[in-house]
């Protein structure tokens, strides 16, 4: 008889699906419920940035997403029909995804759902959580199906990924702090006649408000406007969209047809805390964004991946204190993403003539200097987050080694034994923990073999890999039969030439968790203490 799932995920949007896939990929069964009858067809979020794409890549989904997406090459800003500024995409280094992709949210959900099924998971549709309580070290959740059947479940862990109006968050009384704009927004996806760039997002700024145009992967464009609230209710029709397009687009474009329209209010809020005992908040349940920059879905996907691998590590015998890092890592990141999108939105909506003139001047100056691109693109990509203050990373860097709390850069690899990866990020794309040993001496070879032997003894080799990295310009040994670790030649990003042999623990998200120099026997064991022990546990941290 199989053991009941120890993690209940409430909400099967991109965030909940990502968390569930990460748990299943790490060998942890999960129960996933959603109040909807099935996936919604509304395209909603469109843009997927590099940080979220790397998370999906570790789940084996990003390539399929890219096949159905439109790569965006840049964005431009206009005022009174004049181009003020431009930003080029696709130039980010150290990533397989150097620029954003335009892909409707249902495509992302569909591909994550297929991955979930492939991992042996499923979604219990038309099942809602109606109450959540914390009793001791467990969560007690009441579930109701559409047919009226009800059950009360007691589980060690709950992930609330149930949207802006989260039942999980509200049941626990966690404040949702922030503001709502005094504007409403309308959008339409459809066929727009006129001269429009096929791979660029355009922002047309006027005293009346903003017009945003974004090309869609399967043809057509999304058009997006802000309005004073309360003029009309319900989704806009083509006539209303055309009226707005004429006013803000100077009559250059015509709405030929639309296949989806929407009218909505925008909130910028962040939950006061992302954890309450055994219950975690993720995605829109934890943070609500302006649509500027497409940050909401991207932040949620990274929440889900972060929670998935951390919960799996604890349930496979890791230190429960690892989960104490979720709030201090993800909440500041989410708050920063909310602030960034709010700042962009307020620049769109400036009304006073002097403020608009200053904005237009600054956009032009920053664009011509390249400063606009250098500032905006990394912020939106959420690729290299500063987690050096996290309780889940080491505080003492090793001389000549990479920095704990930062994502490890990429580098070419020449596979020698046990792997076919030709880049470091390609090796890390499995989404497992990695013990990376770099050095030429016997101490490095011994440390790699010790790490592989210990992880095998624990029974967690499905969670962790060991790679011995040799210098690219030195003699390479021929692999002699099966070895416990992988072997490749290449340079350690962030390392210094001639540095002493060292070992790094790389988390499943590619962040350096710890580094030690191999200056005495047994030092690699200090890194292994942070990895799962293989002893299954369901006990929450205090």
From TrEMBL:
Protein's name according to its UniProt entry: FAD-binding domain-containing protein
Region (Disordered): 390-414
Cofactor entry: FAD
Gene3D superfamilies: 3.30.70.2450, FAD/NAD(P)-binding domain
Domain spans labelled FAD-binding: 6-341
Pfam families the UniProt entry points to: FAD_binding_3
Keywords: FAD, Flavoprotein
Organism field: Kitasatospora putterlickiae
């Amino acid at each position: 008889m199989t053991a009941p799932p120890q993690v209940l995920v409430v909400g099967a949007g991109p965030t909940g699906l990502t968390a569930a896939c990460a748990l299943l990929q790490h060998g942890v069964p999960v129960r996933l419920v959603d109040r909807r009858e099935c996936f919604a067809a509304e395209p909603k979020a469109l843009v997927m940035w590099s940080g979220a794409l790397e998370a999906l890549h570790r789940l084996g989904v990003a390539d399929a997403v890219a096949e159905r997406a439109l790569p965006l090459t840049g964005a431009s800003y206009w005022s009174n029909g004049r181009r003020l500024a431009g930003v080029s995409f696709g130039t980010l280094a150290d990533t397989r995804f150097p620029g954003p992709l335009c892909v409707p949210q249902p495509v992302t959900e569909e591909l994550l759902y297929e991955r979930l099924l492939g991992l042996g998971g499923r979604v219990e549709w038309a099942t809602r959580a109606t109450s959540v309580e914390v009793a001791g070290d467990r969560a007690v959740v009441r579930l109701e199906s559409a047919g009226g059947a009800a059950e009360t479940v007691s589980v060690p862990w709950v992930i609330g990924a149930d949207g802006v109006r989260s039942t999980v968050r509200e049941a626990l009384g966690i404040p949702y702090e922030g503001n709502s704009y005094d504007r409403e927004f309308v959008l339409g996806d459809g066929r727009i006649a006129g001269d429009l760039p096929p791979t660029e997002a355009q922002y047309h700024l006027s005293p009346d408000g903003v017009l945003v145009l974004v090309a869609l992967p399967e043809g057509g464009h999304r058009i997006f406007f802000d309005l004073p609230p309360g003029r009309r209710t319900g989704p806009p029709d083509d006539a209303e969209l055309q009226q707005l397009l004429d006013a803000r687009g100077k009559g250059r474009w015509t709405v030929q047809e639309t296949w989806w329209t929407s009218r909505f209010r925008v909130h910028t809020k962040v939950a006061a805390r992302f954890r309450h005992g055994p219950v975690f908040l993720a995605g829109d349940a934890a943070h609500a964004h302006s649509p500027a920059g497409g940050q909401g879905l991207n932040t949620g996907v990274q929440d889900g991946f972060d929670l998935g691998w951390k919960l799996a590590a604890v349930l496979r015998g890791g230190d429960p204190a690892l989960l104490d890092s979720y709030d201090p890592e993800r909440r500041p990141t989410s708050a920063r993403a909310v602030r960034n999108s709010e700042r962009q939105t307020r620049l769109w909506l400036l009304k006073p003539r002097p403020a608009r003139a200053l904005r237009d001047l600054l956009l032009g100056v920053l664009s011509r200097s390249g400063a606009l691109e250098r500032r905006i693109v990394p912020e939106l990509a959420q690729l290299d987050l500063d987690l050096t203050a996290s309780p889940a990373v080491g505080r003492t860097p090793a001389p000549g080694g990479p920095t704990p709390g930062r994502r490890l850069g990429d580098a070419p690899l020449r596979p020698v034994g046990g792997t076919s990866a030709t880049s470091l990020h390609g090796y890390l794309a499995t989404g497992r923990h990695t013990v990376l040993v770099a050095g030429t001496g016997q101490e490095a070879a011994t440390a790699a073999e010790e790490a592989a032997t210990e992880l095998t003894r624990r029974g967690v080799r499905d969670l962790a890999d060991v790679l011995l990295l040799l210098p690219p310009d030195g003699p390479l040994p021929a692999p002699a039969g099966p070895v416990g670790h992988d072997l490749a030649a290449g340079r350690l990003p962030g390392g210094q030439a001639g540095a002493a042999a060292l070992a790094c623990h790389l988390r499943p998200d590619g962040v350096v968790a710890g580094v030690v120099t191999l200056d005495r026997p047994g030092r690699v064991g200090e890194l292994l203490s942070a990895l799962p022990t293989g002893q299954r546990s369901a006990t929450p941290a205090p």
